[in-house]
Amino acid sequence: MQATLLSILGLALLGALHAQEDIPVQADFQEDKFTGKWYSIGLASNSNWFKDKKHLMKMCTTVVSATADGNLEVTSTYPKADRCETRNSLYIKTEQPGRFSYTSPRWGSKHDIRIVETNYDEYALVATQISKNAGTSTMVLLYSRTKELSPERLERFTQFSREQGLADEDILILPKTGKSSWEER
């Protein structure tokens, strides 16, 4: 019985690792074109954190800048209650252009981040596999250079999120907020 359970868990882990390797990365990724200000238009995740907080989430801004050593400094500013909150992350480049790693200093989780597709001046689709002691989760982000994005891009985000095994209730187009100071950052 125990051997059967271990076999099933092993196959599930192998399947998850194989699925992670199947996530594409933007061909000929150009870091300098990816930098700048983005709006987070869509977010999809099967994490417990997302399920607990998704009803509170709103569109936020993210500024991506390149560091001298080729990493990405990612600063996200979002509304929280009656104030703005900012979160800084350093995405460490890997040998594959368009693929980065990040370890959360707060939670200890490891993130495998892939820029799946982008045309740099309109949208970007980003997939992240998150590993923690409690297991793994998937997150997909849809970035836009403006607060509006075509229905085709929104549908592509939804379709890609489903391809990553996310259910419809795990997919959210983030509601816009009124003009506020966090948007200026």
TrEMBL record:
Keyword Nucleus: yes
Lipocalin/cytosolic fatty-acid binding domain span: 35-177
Top-rank taxon, per record: Eukaryota
Extent of the signal sequence: 1-19
PROSITE patterns in the cross-refs: LIPOCALIN
Its EC number(s): 5.3.99.2
GO BP field: mast cell degranulation; prostaglandin biosynthetic process
Predominant location category: cytoplasm
One cellular-component annotation, GO: extracellular space
Reaction(s) the record says it catalyses: prostaglandin H2 = prostaglandin D2
Protein keywords: Cytoplasm, Disulfide bond, Endoplasmic reticulum, Fatty acid biosynthesis, Fatty acid metabolism, Glycoprotein, Golgi apparatus, Isomerase, Lipid biosynthesis, Lipid metabolism, Mast cell degranulation, Membrane, Nucleus, Prostaglandin biosynthesis, Prostaglandin metabolism, Secreted, Signal, Transport
Protein location: Cytoplasm, Perinuclear region; Golgi apparatus; Nucleus membrane; Rough endoplasmic reticulum
Molecular function (Gene Ontology), one example: prostaglandin-D synthase activity
Cross-referenced CDD domains: lipocalin_L-PGDS (cd19419)
Keyword presence, Endoplasmic reticulum: yes
Family under the similarity heading: Belongs to the calycin superfamily. Lipocalin family.
Description of how the protein assembles with itself and partners: Monomer.
Protein name, entry field: Prostaglandin-H2 D-isomerase
Annotated organism of origin: Casuarius casuarius (Southern cassowary)
Gene it is expressed from: Lipo
